[in-house]
Amino acid sequence: MGEMGKMGRHGKDGKDGKKRQGPPVRKRFGQHFLESVWVRKLIDLINPQPDDTFLEIGPGRGALTLPLAARGGRVVAVEIDRDLAAELGPRLPANTLLLCADVLAVDLKALFEREIPGVTRLRVVGNLPYNVAAPILFRLLAFRRSLGRLTDATIMLQQEVADRLLAEAGTGEYGVLTILVRMQADVTRLLTLPPGAFRPAPQITSTVVRLTFRSPLIRLRDSPGFEALVRGIFTKRRKTILNALKPMAEAVGASASEALATVGIDPVRRPETLEVAELAALADFLAAVRK
């Protein structure tokens, strides 16, 4: 897991006055530690309030965890690196809970119902490495649907992933992630961080975005069916929508041509040109036929 707010490996002073190194940076977890000036900027953007409860993904050495806990109500931090978790745990205040686990393996709904059953304002903070950013975002969307108390997520992403979240229909970045996130959240770009904001410096530019969760953009007959449709046609994004839709339409005994004509979509368009409302109309047509 990547670590938003992890500070550089400055270490601690030992009794002999020499610097002690912290746990080693683990490349497989995408670890890059944020410099203090950028930590302060992020805290100001997050603007923690006393009634906020935070889920922090990848607390690292606690650069964000500690100020979040000082200004917010409660912090639940999930850290995959056992060495970092062991170092951080003893330094945390009483209003924090640290789990050494992979956030993708944690039942977030059960965790919060057990630990903080009455939370009304739940927020997420985290740095999501490129290779697991999409799975974690999809997990947060499912968490929002199941618990309903998630208000926003301030997350750091590789710039390319942020561009996908903010993409417009008809562009190469527009796809499954764009559409499924947009159905449940408004996305705002907050901050761009150069490689020099981290130690060790990565070879990428990072972007901080905020997802503000809300009611679904469009009321659907069948939400799982909508997701299946989006995933299905975007595996064939270079084909016409007619050809991309055919297997799914035939699976429910429908005609792709009829479906497109009914909802007013030109069959020669490509999947990546379809707006969310058009995709929702197609999914609702297939749901009606299926029933």
**Rg, nearest Å:** 21 Å
Structural class: alpha/beta
Query: CATH first level of the largest domain: which class?
Result: Alpha Beta
User: How many helices does DSSP assign?
Assistant: 11
**Low-pLDDT windows of residues:** 1-21, 25-30
**Shape-level CATH architecture of the largest domain:** 3-Layer(aba) Sandwich
| C-alpha end-to-end distance | 42 Å
In short:
This protein has 291 residues and is of the alpha/beta class.
Describe this structure in words.
It contains 11 helices and 11 strands. The chain has helices at 36-46, 65-71, 82-88, 108-115, 130-147, 159-165, 176-184, 223-234, 241-251, 256-263, 276-290, and strands at 12-13, 19-20, 33-34, 53-57, 74-79, 96-100, 122-128, 150-158, 185-193, 198-199, 206-213. Residues 1-21 and 25-30 have low confidence and may be disordered. Helix 5 (130-147) runs parallel beside helix 7 (176-184), helix 8 (223-234) packs across helix 11 and helix 9 (241-251) crosses helix 10 (256-263). With 291 residues, the chain is α/β, with parallel strands linked by helices. A hairpin with a 5-residue loop joins strand 1 and strand 2. A 7-stranded mixed β-sheet has the order 6-5-4-7-8-11-9, with helices on both faces. A two-stranded antiparallel ribbon has the order 1-2. It has 2 domains: 12-213, Vaccinia Virus protein VP39 (Rossmann fold, 3-Layer(aba) Sandwich), CATH 3.40.50.150; 223-290, Orthogonal Bundle (Helicase, Ruva Protein, domain 3), CATH 1.10.8.100.
